[in-house]
Amino acid sequence: MTFRPGRPWLLVLTLWTQVGTGCGDVEKIVAVSYDDRHTATELDVYLPAGPPPPGGWPAVLAIHGGGWSKFDRSSMARASERLAGAGYATVNIDYRLVPAGQYPAAVQDCLCALAYTRAHAAEWGVDPARIATFGYSAGGHLASMLGVAAGAATHQPDCAAGVTGPPAAVVSGAGPQDLWLYPEVDEVVEFVGGGKVAAPELWDAASPITHVAAGAPPFLFVHGEDDWFAGVEHSEHMRDALAAVGTPADLLTIPGGGHLINRDAAAGRYDLVVVSTDTAEAWLAIVDFLDRTIGARGVR
Fold first, then answer.
1. Residue 167 CB neighbour total at 10 angstroms
2. Three-class SS string for the chain?
3. Angle CA(260)–CA(264)–CA(268) in degrees, nearest 5?
4. pTM
5. 11: buried, middle or exposed (CB in 10 Å: 19+, 13-18, 0-12)?
6. Residue closest to 21 by CA, chosen among 45, 58, 49, 61
7. Residue 218 and residue 290: Cα distance in Å, rounded?
8. Region of residue 125 (phi > 0: left; psi between -120 and 50: alpha; otherwise: beta)
9. 254-292 pLDDT, tens per residue?
10. Mean per-residue pLDDT over the chain, rounded
11. 290: closest CA among 234, 216, 219?
């Protein structure tokens, strides 16, 4: 599963559209509030066709990217439909963005959404013990935080759904894992809530790699080798840290893969393109990982 260097971007996107989604229509439940205190805390549910299997569908909590300050769950809609088509109920969430979502608020929202999903699992035909997280960029960071830091006191949500434990598996696409690898760029400083000198403890606490300990769920990292925003070393270091404590962790690198494309420089418009996870190779790896961890092949 490799990405051929030099493949044109249009061909990459064409390959993505040609990857099958599975059989049958996907059922959608839209605009569900998982925390009524905030307008940004809504989710959409994508259910596979047909009745759920005994015990319920395995599920994925999808978390969008955007530097913790931009975009919404619509950027994960296509991936959510494809996951549902592959047999995974998918809960595609929004969360508070910076400034309201400054750390740890965004992490708390994601945990609240996971708790809400588990609380409503029977209603949606979902197995609450088989829920993975999947995010890209800032969403990959948040997916990782749920995997290794769900139990941290600072991250416990106070929403009606209550607290919950970590997911059963994590897929992180191009996710920042060690915020100290960044210079003091605006996106990171604004999310953390201060610079490295002023708030070093927050740079530690907001970095998934700081929370690595034995007992974390299995991880899959997908990362473009030429990612300019979150260098591939983020995933490499996190994979190695997890492996060192006995946690299964795999990394699929996409040669030539970047982070986002400027579609219209003259207009100053930037469109998020999920380059590392939005390829045929990555899709096969993600579904295989889910099959082995929370899907039929992962059930003992």
1. 28
2. CCCCCCCCHHHHHHHHHHCCCCCCCCEEEEEEECCCCCCCCEEEEEECCCCCCCCCEEEEEEECCCCCCCCCHHHHHHHHHHHHHCCCEEEEECCCCCCCCCCCHHHHHHHHHHHHHHHCHHHHCEEEEEEEEEEECHHHHHHHHHHHHCCCHHHCCCCCCCCCCCCCEEEEECCCCCHHHCCCCHHHHHHHCCCCCCCHHHHHHCCHHHHCCCCCCCEEEEEECCCCCCCCHHHHHHHHHHHHCCCCEEEEEECCCCCCEEEECCCCEEECCCCCCCCHHHHHHHHHHHHHHCCHHHCC
3. 90
4. 0.89
5. exposed
6. 49
7. 10
8. left
9. 887 777 544 444 555 444 454 578 888 999 999 999 999
10. 88
11. 219
Residue 185 near residue 69, CB atoms below 8 Å: no
Amino acid, res. 33? S
Q: 9-298 falls under which CATH superfamily?
A: Alpha/Beta hydrolase fold, catalytic domain (3.40.50.1820)
| Domain ranges across the chain | 9-298
- Token pair 């969008």 is found at 64
